[in-house]
Amino acid sequence: MGRVMIKCPNTGKLVFTGVLSAKSMFEKSTIKETKMPKCAACGKDHTWTKEQAILQE
Ligand SMILES: [Zn+2]
Q1: How far is the CA of 50 from the centre of ligand 1 (A)?
Q2: How far is the centre of ligand 1, averaged over its atoms, from the C-alpha of 48 (Å)?
Q3: Which listed residue, of 2, 8, 50, 51, carries a Cα 20 to 30 Å from 23's Cα?
Q4: Residue 44 CA to its chain's centroid (Å)
Q5: What percentage of the chain reaches a pLDDT higher than 70?
Q6: Could you tell me the distance, in angstroms and rounded to a whole number, from the CA of residue 49 to the centre of ligand 1?
Q7: Which residues touch 42 (CB under 8 Å, ≥6 apart)?
Q8: How many domains does the chain fold into?
């Protein structure tokens, strides 16, 4: 399983969204706007979509 990461818009750091996914599933999935509360980098809430996400294995 890989960890779905996004780049924090405030700090530019990669942060874990809390979503775990296998690569094959991630590539096929269509993730719409998902809320990520309490960003690990800046402490704020972010909303992200699949286009912004990076799968880290
Ligand atoms: Zn952030």
Answers
A1: 16
A2: 11
A3: 8
A4: 14
A5: 100
A6: 14
A7: 8, 10, 11
A8: 1
The pLDDT score that the predictor gives to residue 33 is 95
d(CA 5, CA 17): 6
CA of 9 to the centre of ligand 1 (A): 6
Rounded distance between C-alpha atoms, residue 5 and residue 16, angstroms: 4
Strand pairing category for 2-7 and 46-48: unpaired
The range of the structural domain enclosing residue 36 comes to 2-56
4-28 pLDDT, tens digit each? 999 999 999 999 999 999 999 999 9
